[in-house]
């Protein structure tokens, strides 16, 4: 029996995935605000994720965020002023600056990780460890399918 003979074509699964991500991010920012990080936005999290692997240049940040160099520079200035990131001369390119997380940025990441661990714990509690593990594997398979067989990177969607 073919899929469309049994059930009408639906996109509920896609919508529930999108809505789940949105709710996770909304709750994250409520938690961050309560922990004193009320001045970060979702776009900052994508930048922090990039910087957590050793820093990046303004050009690399712009590319990762899919924004102009000017927009990335403005975000860097804003986050530097708020104490989330620092800039220093790039060790391999004297013309560039390396943007790195400051302690406040790392603290924000740690709070984010606590939230994500808590959400995952709740999912395991809801579904059970075996089904949650199956869901994790299914999500990886879906990501690869959507990304032409390649692992997907965590990048913003504007």
Distance between the termini: 39 Å
Fraction in helix: 55-70%
Q: What is the fourth-level CATH superfamily?
A: Winged helix-like DNA-binding domain superfamily/Winged helix DNA-binding domain
Major sheet attributes: 2 strands, antiparallel
What is the total number of structural domains? Answer: 1
Q: Quickly give the structural class.
A: mainly alpha
Whole-angstrom Rg: 19 Å
* CATH classification, class level: Mainly Alpha
Low-confidence stretches: none
Strand order, main sheet: write it out.
Answer: 1-2
Give me the CATH fold name: Arc Repressor Mutant, subunit A
Helical region count? 7
SSE string = HHHHHEEHH
Strand content: 5-15%
- The appropriate CATH architecture is Orthogonal Bundle
In total, the number of strands is 2
What is the residue-averaged pLDDT? 92
């Amino acid at each position: 029996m073919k899929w469309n003979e049994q059930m009408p074509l639906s996109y509920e699964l896609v919508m529930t995935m999108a809505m789940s991500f949105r709710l996770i991010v909304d709750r994250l920012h409520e938690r961050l605000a309560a922990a004193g990080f009320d001045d970060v936005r979702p776009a900052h999290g994508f930048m922090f994720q990039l910087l957590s692997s050793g820093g990046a240049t303004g050009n690399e940040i712009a590319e990762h965020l899919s924004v102009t160099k000017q927009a990335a520079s403005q975000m860097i200035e804003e986050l530097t002023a708020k104490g989330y990131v620092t800039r220093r001369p790039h060790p391999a390119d004297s013309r560039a600056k390396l943007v790195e997380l400051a302690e406040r940025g790392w603290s924000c990441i740690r709070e984010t990780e606590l939230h994500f661990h808590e959400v995952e714990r709740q999912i395991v509690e809801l579904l059970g460890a075996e089904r949650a593990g199956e869901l994790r594997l299914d999500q990886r398979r879906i990501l690869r399918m959507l990304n032409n067989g390649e692992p997907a990177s965590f990048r913003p969607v504007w």
